[in-house]
Amino acid sequence: xxxxxxxxxxxxxxxxxxxxxxxxxxxxxxxxxxxxxxxxxxxxxxxxxxxxxxxxxxxxxxxxxxxxxxxxxxxxxxxxxxxxxxxxxxxxxxxxxxxxxxxxxxxxxxxxxxxxxxxxxxxxxxxxxxxxxxxxxxxxxxxxxxxxxxxxxxxxxxxxxxxxxxxxxxxxxxxxxxxxxxxxxxxxxxxxxxxxxxxxxxxxxxxxxxxxxxxxxxxxxxxxxxxxxxxxxxxxxxxxxxxxxxxxxxxxxxxxxxxxxxxxxxxxxxxxxxxxxxxxxxxxxxxxxxxxxxxxxxxxxxxxxxxxxxxxxxxxxxxxxxxxxxxxxxxxxxxxxxxxxxxxxxxxxxxxxxxxxxxxxxxxxxxxxxxxxxxxxxxxxxxxxxxxxxxxxxxxxxxxxxxxxxxx
Length: 408
Hints:
By secondary structure, the protein is an alpha+beta fold. The chain has eleven helices and five strands; from the N terminus they run αααααααααβαββαββ.
């Protein structure tokens, strides 16, 4: 319950009480119940009937109890005001149906009220039937005047109490439905925010993989080529010059792939830019040539009849091979023999990159860093399985199998 609702209920109760005083004055002026209650008592009873409505939302059952008892006293003591009192009782009963959270309590409270009012009306009708009442124009029709009056009052009261009951229940059901709708809306908004956060995380991981595999590969080659050029600078300037030319080409390739990746990120509708999308298993010979220029000895083996694979599969397998050869350069060093093995099977495509580990050791051991994490993530996106670890004897092997039929 909000502060605005509390103020609105208080204002409504005050307005109805003022209207009841006016109705009381008019009733006394026209001679209604000349032997009725005194003005002070009448005003006090009307206050008990109407003013509790200020709390009809926060305490609907107590308000109905007070209003009902006061209403009966208004009728028994013949207070010359009927209109506003009936409105107040209707609102009190409606409020129980609309605002009482314990629905069983709401039902039996209203049920008791209906029974009490029915008994009181029957007693009132019995009293009236024992009195000599005169009805102007009576005797027209099949019913006696008393019977017709009784049926009329019964019909009015049925409509009165049934209406208050139904409208109260309808208001409760509508409020409950609105609350459920608001809850589902909040849950949907939370779920959408969660999905958005997950999408951002996935995209960040994808960008990190591309940066690592594309740029880090070239940077690693540049480091190897620069070291080789420095070593040969005095003893063999010609070969040193060749290493520097290779270093220049590698740096250009790195910058080119970086610009391509940035262009892809700026394009909202782009998934793979044309150059990146062209990288696949067909690009392995060029990748091996770059590795050999850096000092590795690499052989490429293919088993089975080659066939076109989805672009995403080809790109990820290419990146895994690229990262594997980069790791060979960093950790096993130039002079190492490596083998890239591709097998085209009926149900999967397999890639294996293995080395003999006999080259110059790198500055640190292979410890499953970001490169291995990125390769596992790439395999997982293809529903594939990646295995990486030391070979029997010496060296390292990376093996990945990707089932056919994955999404492109």
